[in-house]
């Protein structure tokens, strides 16, 4: 009987304190879990300790950047294609280009000119596939082994020249025009008179020879004829 009474009193006591204990547990539980979470999670570093990430300044294009480079929509640079002149194909079996003299008329025999007069040279181009932009015209004197310049960078569209031997001034300390046999030279101004002929291109020309002389002053005959 005594044990039954003790058990009943203990049950009543537990029923009286259970709500209090349970309420305290409910109130303490969340706080405890929040404190535990805050303790276990490391506190993020201060914003002052994290270096601020800034964007790099835009790169400017200097004067040494090729003008042909540009930036596409996706930011990738690209180069514009360079226009190149197409090379003209020449059959190597074809003859080289040449010069056909029109003036003076070579069929009329040897040509002689007095030093001091004007001499006209005229010609046509033949078999040209690759035309030079200009030619040089010179005269080589066999008497003193000098080459005299008649015209430089003469347009190929004007195949003629007038050589005024009276006002001609030798260059680079050359001696004056001498009597003797001369050879007319015509060649591509980007080449040389000694260049090897190439098919379809202007070959150096040295096919016209002419003479130049200085007339002697008139000398009267001495005495009278009987």
TrEMBL record:
Alphabetical keyword list: Signal
Region of interest (Disordered), ranges: 33-93
One Pfam assignment: DUF7137
Ranges of biased composition (kind: Polar residues): 46-85
Keyword Signal carried by entry: yes
Domain spans labelled DUF7137: 94-223
InterPro entries membership: DUF7137
PANTHER family cross-referenced by the UniProt entry: CHROMOSOME 1, WHOLE GENOME SHOTGUN SEQUENCE, YALI0E30657P
Protein name: DUF7137 domain-containing protein
